[in-house]
Every structure is written in structure tokens, then in C-alpha cells.
Amino acid sequence: MRKLLIFFLLLSSTYSFAQDSTYTRKIVDTLTSKTFWGRGYIKDGMAKAGDFIALNYKSIGLLPMGNDYKQTFSYPVNTFPGKMIVELNGKKLKPGVDFLVTNESPGLKKKDKLVQIDSLKFQSSSDLVLLLKNKLTWSVATEVSEITTIELNRKTFKAIPNKINVDVENKFIDDFKAANICGFVKGTQFPDSVLMITAHYDHLGGMGANTYFPGANDNAAGIATLLSLAKYYAANPQPYSIGFICFAGEEAGLLGSRYFVENPLIPLSNIKFLINLDLVGTGEAGMTVVNASVYPKAFTMLNEINNEYKLISKINSRGKAANSDHYFFTEKGVPAFFFYTQGGISAYHDVYDKPETLPLTRYHSLFNLIVKFNQKLQAQH
């Protein structure tokens, strides 16, 4: 009877906490603000975001995995902190909306005529290329090419480009300093058994002095969900320890998670299961689980929970994929799922991934699914 009462109390606290999404929304709004400038490589965006998450860990009451919450590392990155001027046919274009300078481009200052190579490509010389695109998406480069490439949004600039004026400044950083933010809630019965929840907090940063990429769905939503779960587990310690890692360097090639796996702050064998959250701000069309076919028993258990509690409309199965921070853990034998939701906004790696258009449609359902899945995992001890 006592065990049954504790079980129902736990379910009640899970439900009531999950319904309060004010904290989650506040985290998304904060991380996507100008203060953090796309959580990237100029204006100290990533460093500020890491400090903010560490402060939240402390206020929540998480214990650090190491000497403190930060696991520091470094890597090379190409950045664009200065001038970002592109004029076509005498018309000044808006960064992020009308054009992008590709992430590996060197800086360049020149005026020239454009020669059409084919229907989508124009060139002024061997060091400058213009490409027409239906959608502008940006990324992060860890090296610099020899050619400056401008991608032009053909939907906003419909004329044939024939004259170009470029004044773009890049800065290559050999050893950009970053940090994974790592904490945990100690288990009450089996503290050496760990259920890990992860998400990356870095995004693309900014392009020039006036344009930044907010990254609401990618991945402020994942960080906000992780911190909400951290609050819940700090208030409701489990038999297992619950770990939380917010990774840096994901957009540059899963660099933060790879560094952690190569330099683990806890034995990887202690991690009984890992859930990675990336692009979880929607959910109208359900969600997908990467590694579902790799761990079929765990995926069946996840679906049984979902069917019982009617949480997510559809859970799609996907196989192994090196598309987020779960990957290197799986390669080292750590069982891991990567959750991402579908439906709603289509903004991705662009300036339109904003908090005001992020619905957080199935936040409550995803929160409860994770909590109940972790309960089931622990019951198997």
C-alpha cells in the first residue's frame, strides 16, 4: 500500500510540474535574445549562454560532474564579426534574408561584373562565386576555403545579377574556447547507475554586426526541456542518478559530445541510457526516435507508454544516424535515443527560427513521456 501511494504521488507531481511551461518558455525566450547573439562565435554568444545554463544548474541544485559545471575544450572556427556588405546591380542586400556568405568563405572586398555560368551560378573571378538558392540555410565551418561564395535568395531578388559589390570580413580562430555544461542529481539507491539527458546549446551565432540566428527550435527548445526536467528531478530524486549535459560545438560537427566521450567525467559504462533532445519545439505531426531499430526493446517500451497515456500522436522509428550528440555515445556502447519532433514551423538554420513562432506544441507530452520512460528503465534494475 505504501509503495502504491508513493507511485501515485510521483505521477501527480510529474503531471503538475509538466503543466507549468512558463519556465520552459522563459528559457527559450532568453536563449534566443540578442544578448546571446545566436549562441555562437562573436559577441561572446556561446560563452554567455554557457554561463547562463551553469547558473540555472546551480539554482536548480544540480551537482557538478567535475570540479565545476564546465568541461572546457577548443576547436578552430571561421567567423564573420565585421563588415557584411553585398550589393547587386546597385541594390544593397540584407544579410540572412537576401543573401548569405557561406560559412567557409574568406573575407573579400571588391567590385566587379558577374558572368553567368549556368542558370544558378554566376562568377566574377576565381575568388568570388554567386549561387541562386530557393532557401538560405547557414552552418559552421572549422576551416576556410579559397573562394568567397555568396548565396542569393532568388525569391527576394528576382533580377538577373550582373554587377556586384562585396565587402565582407572574416576572422579565423584557431582555438575557440567552448565548454560542455555538466551536472547531475544523485540517485537515492543506485547512484552509480546514470540516466543521461542531453541537448546542445550552441547555435550558428551571427553573420556580421547586425544579423544573428536565434535558434529557437534548434536548440533552445531542447535546452529548455532539459532544464525543466532538471528542475523536476532535483525536486524528485530517483533511485538512479540523473545526469544532464548541455553540449557546445554540435553545429561545428558534434565536437562537444565527441570531446565528452573521449574525456568522460563519469565512466561511460555507468550510463544505462541516454536521451538526446534536439529540435523538440513542435510535435503536431508526432516525433521521431533515432536508434529506435538499434534498441528495439527500449523502443517498444517507449511506444507502450505512449499508447497507454496518449501522449504523442505518432512515434516514428529511425535507425542509426550521426545527426546529433547521441552518436558518439552509441559508438562507445552507450544505449541512446535521439528525440526530435515534427510539424509546425519549417524554419531551420536560418534567421526565421524565432521564439515567437515556436509553438512548443507537445512540450507537456514529451516531458511526461521522458519521465515515465525513465521510471520504466529504473524498474528493470
From TrEMBL:
Keyword match GTP-binding: no
**What Gene3D superfamilies is this protein classified in?**
Zn peptidases (3.40.630.10)
Q: Name one Pfam family in it.
A: Peptidase_M28
Q: Where is the Peptidase M28 domain?
A: 180-372
| The keyword RNA-binding belongs to this UniProt entry's keyword annotation | no
Instruction: State the signal peptide span.
Output: 1-18
- Keywords, in A-Z order: Signal
Database matches in InterPro entries: M28_fam, Peptidase_M28
The protein here is known as M28 family peptidase
